[in-house]
Amino acid sequence: MKIAVIVSSTRLSWSTRRLIAVLRSRGHHVLLINASDVALVADKGFEARIGPHRLDPDAVIVRSLGMNTSLEQFLSRLTVLAFLEEMGIPVINPWLPTLIARTKMLTTLFLAKAGIPVPPTLLTESLGVTLHYVREWGSVVFKPLTGSLGLGAFKADDIDTAYHVASMFLSFSRPVYMQAFIPKSGNSDKRVFVVGDSVVAAARRVAPPGEWKTNVARGGKVEPTTLDEEEERIAVKAVKALGLYYAGVDIARGTDDKLVVFEVNAMPNWRGLYRATGVDPAEHIARLLEGLAKRGGEE
After folding, report:
1. What pLDDT does 153 receive?
2. Which residues does the UniProt record annotate as the domain ATP-grasp (predicted)?
3. How many Å apart are CA 177 and CA 154, to the nearest integer?
């Protein structure tokens, strides 16, 4: 099969390089496509093109649409995915689930609607409303509305700190996305990697001493772990609630032992998870993509 791997830079992550290697080892022809190079044409039909050539792969996997894009760039690249889907090409992950997963409040909405436990969450452009909920919730975490790797997240333990952080966001015309801080049991969480209907691997991530962020990119230690029945069920349910084919789900138990879903990443990396568990999600993703292509994109 001819498989397009969509990226946003020539600097590929280890996980993307690994996925490409696995796809090639399984006999597929891999087209590495920078999202910014795709042109869309609507004229007596619609098609996607790379220069003079029509882009018509058998399947597409999206690894990155860019982290520091403008809104117009992001919507343009999202439209590329929509065009490819309308051309009958299986795309993982599809454009609408990708949008939902990329926008944290939409993620929270869809998870909560499915009955999945999430932290108390606020999205607002009002400083007064922000401070009202800081008083109600106590310690809070501010996050960019889009983003990953723990970048740009701030923890505020008092109203003065919260005031300054919220004011900073609003001064840059950014809405406030804020969650009640939930202390994690053992100062750790679990990254659960779901492909299709199954958990293929899971690892425990432990925050460095004195820190609260468990992200591997922020210095978190990764180690093997097991999941109980509830953790596995909730992780798979979270991926399905967002309409994703594969994702990394961050879950943890609070100090009250209640399970909470914190993040769902539609374009997860897995180098740390692979080192901790020996499980390579790339093989599972490749098999999923092959199955979708054979069925014409229908599950």
Report:
1. 87
2. 108-290
3. 11
Distances in Å between the Cα of 162 and the Cα atoms of 108, 179, 181 are 21, 12, 12
Is the backbone of residue 199 left (phi > 0), alpha (psi -120 to 50) or beta?
A: beta
Backbone angles phi, psi at 21, to 5 degrees: -60, -40
Helix ranges (DSSP H) in 138-178 = 159-171
Domains and CATH numbers, the chain: 2-93+289-294 (3.40.50.20), 101-116+184-280 (3.30.470.20), 121-180 (3.30.1490.20)
- Tell me the pTM: 0.91
pLDDT tens-place string over residues 69-87: 888 999 999 999 999 999 9
Nearest to 254 by CA among 183, 179, 180: 183
- Rounded distance between C-alpha atoms, residue 217 and residue 203, angstroms: 14
Q: What is the mean pLDDT of residues 137-165?
A: 87
In the Cβ-directed half-sphere of 9, how many Cα atoms lie within 13 Å? Answer: 9
* Least reliable range by pLDDT among 36-50, 65-79, 138-152, 219-233: 138-152
Residues in Cβ contact with 86 at an 8 Å cutoff, skipping those fewer than 6 apart: 46
The H or E element spanning position 241 is: helix 229-242
CA separation for the pair 156, 163 (Å, rounded) = 9
Measure the CA–CA gap between 144 and 146, rounded to whole angstroms. Answer: 5
Residues in the chain: 299
